[in-house]
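Components:
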Amino acid sequence: MTGRNLNFKHRVAVVGAGLTLFRSRLLETPQELAWLAAKQALDEAGLTLKDIDCVVIGSAPDAFDGVHMKGEYLAEGAGGIHKPTIRVFVGGATGVFVPIAAWWHVASGLCKRVLAVAEEKMSHAARPHTQYVFRYIWDPIVEKPLNPNLIWIFAMEMHRYMHKCGVKKEDVALVSVKNKRNACGHPSAQLCMPNITVDDVLKSEVLVWPVQLLDISPTSDGAAAVVLASEEEARRITDTPVWIKGIGWTLDTTHWTNRDLAYPEYVRRAAEMAYRMAGIDNPRKQIDVAEPYDPFDYKELHHMEGLGLAKKCEAPVLTREGVTQRDGDLPINPSGGLLGVGNPIAAAGLMKVAEIFWQVRGEAGERQVKKPVYTGLAQAWGDLMQAGTVVVMGI
Amino acid sequence: MGWFGFQPEIVDYSFREMVFKAAQRAYEDAGGLDPRRDADAFISCQEDFWEGISISDEFAPDQLGGAMKSVYTVTGDGLQCVGQASMMIKSGLFDVVVVESHGKPSDIATLNDVMFTATDPISVRPLGLENVHAVAALEARSYMSKYGVSEDHLDAVVEKAHEAGLRNPRAVYASLDRKRSSTPVVADPLREADIARFVDAAVVVVLASERVIRDYTDAPVWVDGAWWSTEISTLELHDWSFPVHAREAADGAYAQAKIADPAKEVGFAEVDNRYSFKELQHIEALRLAPRGTAKDLLADGAFCPGGRLPVNLSGGALAEGVPLEVHGLARLSYAVGVMRGEIKAEVDRADVAVVHSWRGVPTTTSAVTVLRL
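Structure:
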């Protein structure tokens, strides 16, 4: 079984992070975006490209950037030239998977300093809307002829969750309000809305019932990067390394129609793997701050439950009680998440890892949560409601 | 190790069924390994545009027995996945990792256009490239003029590949009638016979840690080194005359395997020859011959079956075809077959092999694996 051998030879730390602006229709090329984030992460770690042994790239569908073999194309911007450079891919869950893959680059002992870069440029992808790229993610024989749309199936999932847990739209909208307000403290944020109310969400345009415009994250361009290092290197680079304590990921069957849409079992299993590695047996008590994936407001609730940060159907209650606010007992998405900062798919996931890095170091500025942070968690989700990726980090 | 296909056009099986067949054979080969119980993680090596599916990793888990387990995709050649699996096992977190790659180019109606979209959308794409082999032809000219390689030397490479391929049952394109000089020019100096054709195939490889390997086999083939490298991806800036990426990947793999003099220590090699001149280039990049000398050593028979250091006993891609990202695993599976003695080959030393793959134009990425008995 995965994780049965927990005698790792090398501890791995994050020593720097970088982030571009998240915006629609940025003028920089994908390579330029990747480099802006990479350079910032290197600068924060006090390193240059010469210090980097290996590069891990994450980016979601090639169709977004419109480039076949996008990893080859991005290699230059991500600093991967004349280095072992690899691109990993688990759909929307890619952003949190990049540091997972970077972890074993270091933990294997084969690389000492690894640059992990995630980039997405989706706002130019298709006409009339980026959603058109998602027409080609389906089984080409049994599903594609129906021409489904991603928002349709997520609307089904949202509906199912609300029905099974007896959740009202007003409860779900609270997540959107919290995250879009939180985003006002984030320098990269695309959708800072300081005065947004539940009423605004409920009155926004209906896309596919029950999904409305303000329930959903925007179309974004952007890049994020982190630098990982072995224990010896990390201690040389910084006095405040943030250790990667647990990694986990799961991919469920392709056949999403057979899934329990009310509960993300694949996230539970991914979290279980990461918790076992990190020695966490009570996540609700042991995780101080979390950045679960929130491309839709209901997904934050869904994922909190999958991660064991709330019992089944309990996440809306915790949200209503203010537990998940920045000054709450369990701050959730203090960055503003995808709903507020933006959603350049892979970059958005890595943004969450960067946020936990800054939160653990106490460097999150006005986003810094009130309680002391010893351990944090970032999680992403992707594919056909199928993939869960989890990283646990701490001092 | 399990494979399925290596046919120009597989019409009876979907790509998922092809992978299922290859996986079934691999698990049987690994002593009846049960993927649901025994495998810790699965890696699929594939590219969205080859699949015609966006987010193609969605379709990776089921046919491998990996649903609800740790599965992910590397958008690269199968040998890069072997490198990832090797790292995962060395980290101590994983004991058994399954690597899969599949390619069904016969399903792609516009292969040239797909390959063209791998070029830079701003600096290269506006030029138009109706024949992507033209990029390889420019590299061929550069290499040939710098190192004095003639078209006769390319004739010899093609002839060797087809002769060797005749002994390889999955080399569907091997034919003694395939005389290079009688095939038409595609992009000067490359003729049709210089360019490997595409083939449909799936290969699955199971890797296990030293700790658990005896649960599955008494005769493991060890991955002693696995590395990869990307040269500059900007087409106009890369080295046209020498595959620097292959040299860097080889040096990394040799360092891991503690091989100081590959030309003496390696028993045989399987290298990329999707273009005939690439076999000569890659022999040199892998330090199996000094730069510019592969053509002469080839003429002397050094790299032929039974020679000093046989290269591409399988015939390589020129005889087997290029199954997209399966290419490296195709080379690897043949080498493992030779090392285990399952494939009868004219080779003196089957104890150490080096396997190489290049991702083809317009990429500048190579992966190298060193295998030892």
